[in-house]
Specification:
With about 375 residues, the chain is of the alpha+beta class. The protein is built from ten helices and seven strands. Strands 3-4-5-7-6 form a five-stranded antiparallel sheet, with helices on one face. Strands 1-2 form a two-stranded antiparallel ribbon.
Length: about 375
């Protein structure tokens, strides 16, 4: 939904098309996309049959780069923020203002439609902000004090803020939870909440990866998730087990920490070297031979292990001190490799490519009725 020329002028070499099947984008060229999406979501709410339940998935481009907002946002959202001097950060503030306005207008529509009392709003993000030296570093985002950001396997990419809001959780207003939650948990969690409210449910016919976290959402209970498989791709892997996260291979091309005035500067920590050559390297600022990974002698893999609870900034690699834990977690990754599903055929997406439909992305099949899908259900091994 972003004009292609704008994206390329910002240094991004990519192709984009609109994804409004109603082709609103073509009719409303030059309008603020976030407002168009919000207005469409409000229309869905206002026209909804209130005798039936509703699930609304609503996503806007804010606060993704590039930051493009109406001119009047400057006066509305930058008033009183004279201390924000960085241009990219100011643009991010405007982008965030557009998101705030969108969420407010949509929740107001739910109230006016008398749907609010049975509504649960879930606000989530897909990934952290861009790293300091990565693509779209002009976005103005900051993951401080987390390490690196988007397109990496560090916490700056994987750990994102979220909140739930509405009458169902009004008794928890102002409370925080630091429990572990994966995006796959939303399906069983919402299924459980809906069943408790309506006595209706859907049957789960196959084992799923998500776990029911309804007690965490409704009562601020403890997380029941014990592990997260972040990535299992060729030689680059990341896996969380309890308080620890292991990264095997390349965590991403971008690294480092965002610096802020009046905040402590974060640096990677290394053990004191014993040999003379390493001591000289550390003396001139080259500890760890430019990286904080260790080499696994069994296969030559680059390994990083962090306690992301006591060291959320991932400043200290524990792999050399905890070889048994490294072996255990790498064994779990090998088990995951045994049950991983094959990738989908990418060629199917070409049928719905925006180039074939006047600039609008479409499903690769409009009508799935009567279509037989060949699939293999793999039984999970004991992990």
């Amino acid at each position: 939904g972003v004009d292609q020329s704008d994206m390329r002028s910002s240094g991004i070499n990519a192709e984009y098309g609109g994804d409004f099947k109603e082709e609103i984008l073509k009719k409303e060229s030059g309008q603020y996309l976030t407002k168009l999406l919000t207005d469409e979501a409000i229309r869905v709410v206002e026209e909804h049959d209130q005798s039936k339940p509703m699930f609304l998935y609503f996503s806007v481009p804010n606060v993704h780069a590039p930051s493009q907002t109406p001119d009047y946002y400057g006066e509305k959202y930058l008033n009183g923020l004279d201390h924000v001097t960085d241009y990219d950060r100011k643009e991010l503030v405007l982008n965030l203002g557009g998101l705030e306005e969108s969420v407010y207008n949509l929740t107001e529509a739910l109230r006016k439609s008398n749907m609010w009392e049975n509504t649960l709003v879930i606000f989530i993000s897909d990934n952290g902000g861009t790293p300091v030296d990565g693509p779209m570093s002009f976005s103005g985002s900051s993951n401080y004090p987390l390490r690196s950001g988007k397109n990496t396997l560090f916490e700056g990419a994987l750990r994102t803020p979220a909140f739930v809001y509405g009458p169902l959780v009004d008794h928890l207003k102002g409370q925080e939870s630091d429990g572990t939650f994966h995006v796959s948990d939303w399906f069983p969690t919402l299924r459980s909440i809906i069943q408790a409210k309506t006595n209706k449910t859907v049957q789960i016919v196959n084992e799923i990866d998500g776990v029911d976290q309804s007690d965490m959402i409704l009562n601020n209970g403890a997380s029941v998730r014990k592990e997260i498989l972040h990535q299992l791709h060729l030689g680059d892997q990341a896996y969380r087990m309890g308080d620890y996260k292991i990264i095997v291979g390349n965590p991403g091309e971008s690294d480092g920490y965002r610096r802020h005035k009046n905040r402590p500067e974060i640096e990677i920590r290394y053990d004191e070297p014993y040999d003379i050559l390493s001591q000289i390297k550390c003396a001139i600022g080259f500890c760890g031979s430019f990286n904080d990974y260790i080499i696994d002698p069994t296969d030559g893999a680059k390994v990083r292990l962090y306690n992301v609870i006591t060291d959320p900034s991932e400043t200290y690699n524990l792999a050399a001190k905890k070889p048994e834990l490294v072996r255990e977690m790498r064994a779990k990754l090998a088990k995951f490799q045994e049950i991983v599903m094959p990738a989908q055929v990418k060629g199917k997406a070409n049928i719905g490519h925006y180039k074939h439909s006047g600039g609008i992305w479409l499903p690769w099949r409009n009508d799935m009725e009567g279509v037989q899908i060949s699939q293999t259900i793999l039984t999970k091994n004991e992990l």
